[in-house]
Amino acid sequence: MSEDYRQARWPEPLLFEIARSNASKYKAVTWHDEMSYDRESIIESIPKSLLRENLNLPEVSEIEVIRHFTRLSQMNYSVSTGFYPLGSCTMKYNPVGNEEVAMMDELINIHPLQDVSTVQGCLEILYRLEKLLCTVTGMDRFSFAPAAGAHGEFAGCLIMRKYHLVKGENRKVIIVPDSAHGTNPASASMAGFEIEEVQSDNKGMVNVEKLKEMMGEDVAGLMLTNPNTIGLFENRIKEIVEIIHSYDGLLYYDGANLNAIAGIVRPGDMGFDIVHLNLHKTFSTPHGGGGPGSGPIGVKKRLEKFLPPPLIAFSPERGYYFEEPDKKSIGRIKAFHGNFLVCVKAYAYLLRLGWQGLREASEISVLASNYLLSKLKSMEGVIVPFDPELPRKHEFVVSFKKLLKDTGVSTIDIAKRLLDYGFHAPTIYFPLIVEEAFMVEPTETEPKRELDRYAETLRQIIKEAYTAPENIKKAPTNMSVNRVDEVKANHPRTITLSWKIYTKRIKSKEEGEEK
Amino acid sequence: MSKSIKHNPFIPHTDEEIAEMMRSIGINSIDELFNDIPKEFIIKKEPDFEGPFSEKEMLERISNIAVKNLYYPRVQLHIGQGIYLRYVPAAVKEILRRSEYLTSYTPYQPEASQGMLTALFEYQSLMAELLGLEIVNSSMYDWSTALGEAGRMAIRLSGRKKIIIGKYVFKERLEVLNTYIEPMGGFIKEIGYTTEGELNVEELERNLHDSAALYVEYPNAVGFIMKNLDELAEIVHRKGAYLITGVEPTVLGLIKSPGEIGADIAVGEGQSLGLPLSFGGPSLGIFACKDDPKMLRNMPGRLIGMTEDVNGTSRCFAMVLQTREQHIKREKATSNICTNQALMAVGVATYLALLGRSGLRELAEYIFTLTNKAIEKFHKLDFVKIPFYGLPHYQEFVYSVKEMTADKVLKGLLEKGIIGGLNIASDYPELGEAIVTCFTEVHSLASVNNYISALKAVVRHE
Fold first, then answer.
1. Closest CA–CA distance from residue A92 to any residue of chain B (Å)
2. Which residue among A42, A356, B323, B379 is least packed, with the fewest CB closer than 10 Å?
3. Looking at this predicted complex, what is its ipTM?
C-alpha cells in the first residue's frame, strides 16, 4: 500500500479548441439522385424569416472524437476501476452481462408508441419485473414511470396528496426526519406540501415521542428511510406506523437504503403504504456518471388507483396491455414508459440472483459495513456517533469532529487524501445531524482485500493528520487535477457554464482593455 | 458458525474471508447483525421468485421474451412524437459503452471525475451553441419533465399561474406539464392557429396579461413550423411573460434557434441526437435559459462550470451553484432532481462532435427534403387528405385516407410490414381520421415509395 496510484493526466483541450472548419468528414446521411435534385428548391421554400444563418458547432475528425472522449474517460474514477464507497448510493458492481441485454436490437429498436401487439416482449419484461419487485417489497402494484429516486418520491408525495384530497381533506404537512435524504423535503415541497422535521433522538433514530406530538389531522404522511442514513434500523417502526395510521396518514418508504434488508424484511410488512426503489442502487444498474436511473413507485392495493401511468396488465385474451388509468390517478409524470432499458438490466440482475442471492447480497453488504466499522472505530480521532454497540446496516457514519479539533484536518481533507491512494471518497457532511460526517457504504461486491486496504490507508492518513497535516491540506496530488477551486467556480464574476459564456467574457475583457 | 455464498455470483468473498470478517466484528452468525429488527417482520418462508440463472441462461430467457417484439429493421417504422428513429453512429455506441463513464456516480469529487465533468461541460457548451442560449443544465429526465420544470420556473419567476400553449403539443407531454404545475395552482390554456399557419396572435394577446409563459414547439406535434415563430418573443415580453420553446434539436441545423427568436427558456428531447429509441427511455431532457442571474438562480438541475485548481495552474471543471439543489437547500430547492440522464448527455456530446456544424446542417436538410418529398407524393394520391398542406413541415406530417378509419389504415399497413404512424383521431377530432407519420434520415425515397405502395394496397383492400 502506497501513494503509487496515479490517475491519467491528459492535457486534453476542449473540442472547441481543436476545431477546424471542414474537419468533420462523418456522413450522417446518404443523398440519392432524385432527392439531391430537389434539395435546393425544397430548402428555398422555407420562409427566410425562419432560416438559421449561424451555427457555431465545432468540427473535428472521427479519430479526434474517439481519442478525446476516451482520454476524458481515463480521467474518470468508476466502479470498474476501484472502490467507490459513497454512502446512500450503493455503488455495487454493475454486472457486465446486464449490459449485453440492454444492447439487444429487439429491445432498443422499439418505439414507445408502437401498437401494443408489437411490443409484447417489452411489456412482459416489465410485468415480470413488477411481480418480483412486489415480492421484494410487499407492495401490490408498481409503476415504472419515475426516471429516478427523486422522481419516484415526487410521484409518492402526489399520491399522498390525492389520497387525502379525494376524501375531501386538504392536508398541508409532510413530516421528514432531520436525517432524511435532501430529496425527501424537496419532493414533498414540489408536490405542494409544507415540511416539518422530526428530530432524531439520542440513539440516532426518529424521536417517537416528538413524532406523536407532531402528528395530527393536518399531516398527510411521513417519509422514512429504513435503515436510516446513520445506517441504523428504526426498530420502533411499529409504533411509528401506528402513530401515522391512527390519523389516517400514509407512510412513505424511501428505497435508497433497501440494499441492507432486501430478502430479510419487507417495507410492506412493516406497514409502509408507498415505496420507491432505486434500480440504480439496490438492483445493480450503473449510475452513468449521474444517470440514467429508475425509481419505480409501488403501493398497497388501496392506493393502486392513484398510481401514475403506465400500468401493465395481462389477460389470456388480450396478452400484455396498458391499463387505462383510473380517474383518481395523479396523472402522467413522464412521457412514455419510464427508463425502460434500466428496468431491463434490473430484471436481468434479479434473474441472476434469485431470492436467495438477493438475501445474500443484503447479508454481506451489512457484514462488510460492520467489518469496516470494526476496523475504523479504534482509530484515533474517529468518533462513532450514537450507540456504537448497535449493529449498523449496509452503511455507517463516523465523525471526524475530534480529528478536526486535534489537527485542523477536516473531513473534506481526508476525503481528498483518499483519492491519492486510488480510492473514491465516501459521502461527506451528510447526514446533517452528524458533525464532520463520513458516511461509508462498502456494498457486498467489494473484495475483502480492498476493504482492508481502505482501512489501512485511512489509518495512515489519520496518522499523517497528526504528524504532517499540511500534506493532507494539499491533497489530492495524484489525480488528473489538483484540488479544484470551487469558490472561483461559483463566483458570480467568474462563473463559466459554457464555451459561449467563456468566449463572451474573454471578448468583453479584451474590448475593455482596448478602451 | 460459518457462512458460504451459494447463489449470488457477484459476491467475491471466500468462506474463510467471511469467517474472518465475522471474527473481527465479534459475531458468530450474520443473523446477529439483524437482531435489532423486530422478529415479527423477518421473512420466514422463501417466496415464489425467478432465478437464480447463469449468465447464459439469463441471456437466453430474456432473448426469448424480447423476440416477441416487432422491431426495426424488421419493420419499416414511421412514428415520432418526440422520440425518433435515428442512425446511432458507432462512435456514440463506443463511448457510451466505456465503463469509466457508465459505472461512475455523480461527480461529487471533482478531482476524481474530471472526465465526466469535462464531457458534461462540453455537452452544455455544444447544446448552448445549438440552442443559441448561454446556459444549459447537464440534463433532465426527458423532454416532458423538462417542460414540467420550465412551467414551474416561469410560474416562480412571474408569480402568475397560467401557461399558454400553442396548439399541437404531444398529449403525454401536456399531461406531464399539468401534473408538474398543478400543485402550485398552475393551469394550461391552449390557443390555436390562423388558416395561414400562424399562431393566433389576437388570442395570445387576450391571454397574456395574467400568464407566466407562452410555450410553443417547433415543429409541433403535427409536423409544421408556425410562420410567425420569430414574432412571438416581443409580444410575450411586452406583457411581462416568458417565452418557452420546445424543439426537436435536429431541426436547429436549418431553422432559427430558440435564442435567435428571443426565447427565455428552451426545452427539448436529446434522444434524437444520435441515441437509440429504447422504447422511450432512457432519453435526455434538454433544459436551457438565457444568461440572466435571476433565471440562473431559479434554474432546476445540475450545472457544470469551468474553473481552475486552487494553485491557479490548470483548468478544471466542477459542479456549480449546488445551493439551488436539494442536497443543500432541501425543501427550498428549485427542484428535487438528483439522478438525471448524464450518460445520455455524453452520448449526445459525442454525436454533435462527430457531425459538427456541416453534418448537422446536412442532416436537417435531408430530413426536411425527404419529408416534403413525401408530402408531395402523398398529396398526389386522390384518396389522401393532408390537412396542413402548404405549410413548412419537418420530419412529421398528418394525412387521412378518405372513407377509411385511421385504425384500419394502420392495421392494414402493419400487415404489410409498416408501422405507419400514430392514430391521432381522438386527440384532434377536427382533423378527422388523422394519422401523423414520420420520416427521418434512416428513411429514403425508397421507403416513401414502399409506404405508398402499401397504402394503395390497403385502400384497394389487397
1. 9
2. B323
3. 0.97
